[in-house]
Amino acid sequence: MPIQKPKGTYDILPEKAFQRNFLEKKVREIFNTFNYSEIRTPAFEKTELFKRGIGEETDIVSKEMYTFKNDEFTLKPEMTAPVIRAYIEYNLGNESPLQKLFYICNMFRRERPQAGRFREFSQFGAESIGSSDPYADAEMIMLADTIIRGFGIKDSVIKINTIGGAEEREIFFKEFKNYLSAYLNELSPDSQRRFVINPLRILDSKNPRDREILNDAPVLYQFLNESTKKNFESILLILNENGIMFETDYMLVRGFDYYTSTTFEFLSDRLGAQNALLGGGRYDMLVQQLGGKPTPAIGFAAGIERILMIMEADNLLPVKNDFPKLFIASIGEESKKFSFKLLETLRKKGVKCETDFLGRSLKSQMKEANRINAEYVVVIGDEELKSNSVMLKKMSDGSEVKVTDTDNLENYLK
Ligand code: HAM
């Protein structure tokens, strides 16, 4: 029996790799105009980083991590904690008071695979470390918006909320748990568990009865300080002033413990149950929690597979069109030798070209040139060997031009 890929993973065959490269190139260009620099970190980290960074009671840390070597190491399930680990380890804050970093890389979460949800998936994301200015929040959301719209995705909705700081949430939790305690037996098992360890996550429940109960629950926003609310208003105003369409959603909580105040998501109806294209927020306590100086920060990450799903459905992806410029067909052993040398010479000059490696007849070689969409063909036979001149044939219209010295081929091909 042939061996197949593990559940929840996928292969990227050449056509799809071409489309991913297109997407990544565009993403890099936009990060660059927003003055973000790339950071890369190891595929795995010490498990402790994610326990401390993301929170032990979150779904990711409690259920979904790929941990090995006696629990010492874990494949990264997200990039915010690794980026902050590196920020502290290399004292990047000393280098510049505002660090703007981006990444494009693979993540690992042992989730139940379904459409748009994988166990190895890729994200692009950004982290802006050092500013608590509402303009920094606005910049982050506008950066995400510029990328999503830059791809031609029109129907994604931006939802924004603020979840305040830990102290504000403590006051809310008292009221919230007080209200929920009357319904405790009716809540889903997940929500009952969260009631004890992480009540905020109950707001995220998809269970219909949970949702009914939540309808009349106290709202976190009402428990936030005036300064938190004012800051939130400033962010919304800046977004408004800059033509960004969004909806506030006081129920929006995200699956990481590091968030403080601003949280946001870009959603699309067309993704089914996994409707988030992108998510992010402010995490002003994380640098300190991981052993650095108190430093405000904000970021987001987007799911590349989900973005590609929408772009594919809307025909927004390019078709692979990086075809060879030239196919060199040959007849006989001597001309094969000559063709191989010519191939090498042209490749060294940067011309994408191909020849036959399967001992095919001239007719089959011409068919192959056609199949791989080579733009030009030359045939090397005895005559060409002697004269070192070739007929360069354009495949699209069959027109031919004589090139009297094969050293000149490159000029004709350009
Ligand atoms: P997240 O919401 O877990 O946030 O992931 C961001 C995006 O990654 C999601 O909106 C989704 O598109 C994609 N994604 C997540 N899990 C999967 C999966 N199993 N399969 C396919 N796609 C997935 C974070 O990761 C935070 N680190 C974002 C952030 C950065 N917050 C601040 N800075």
Describe what this molecule looks like in 3D.
With 414 residues, the protein is an alpha+beta fold. The protein has two domains: 14-164 and 224-313, Bira Bifunctional Protein, Domain 2 (BirA Bifunctional Protein, domain 2, 2-Layer Sandwich), CATH 3.30.930.10; 326-413, Anticodon-binding domain (Rossmann fold, 3-Layer(aba) Sandwich), CATH 3.40.50. Helices cover 40% and strands 19% of the residues. It is built from 16 helices and 16 strands. The chain has helices at residues 14-33, 47-54, 59-63, 80-89, 92-95, 134-150, 166-181, 189-197, 208-215, 226-241, 286-289, 304-313, 333-348, 362-371, 382-387, 409-413; strands spanning 37-38, 44-46, 67-68, 73-75, 99-108, 120-129, 157-162, 247-248, 262-267, 276-282, 297-303, 326-330, 353-355, 376-380, 390-394, 400-403. An eight-stranded mixed β-sheet has the order 1-5-6-11-10-9-7-8. A five-stranded mixed β-sheet has the order 13-12-14-15-16, sandwiched between helices. Strands 2-4-3 form a three-stranded antiparallel β-sheet. It is elongated. The mean pLDDT is 96. The structure holds histidyl-adenosine monophosphate. Histidyl-adenosine monophosphate is lined by residues 78-80, 109, 111, 116-118, 121, 123, 125, 127, 255, 276-281, 283, 299-303, 305-306.
Helix and strand arrangement:
Elements: H1 14-33, E1 37-38, E2 44-46, H2 47-54, H3 59-63, E3 67-68, E4 73-75, H4 80-89, H5 92-95, E5 99-108, E6 120-129, H6 134-150, E7 157-162, H7 166-181, H8 189-197, H9 208-215, H10 226-241, E8 247-248, E9 262-267, E10 276-282, H11 286-289, E11 297-303, H12 304-313, E12 326-330, H13 333-348, E13 353-355, H14 362-371, E14 376-380, H15 382-387, E15 390-394, E16 400-403, H16 409-413
Parallel strand pairs: 1-5, 7-8, 12-13, 12-14
Antiparallel strand pairs: 2-4, 3-4, 5-6, 6-11, 7-9, 9-10, 10-11, 14-15, 15-16
The structure holds histidyl-adenosine monophosphate.
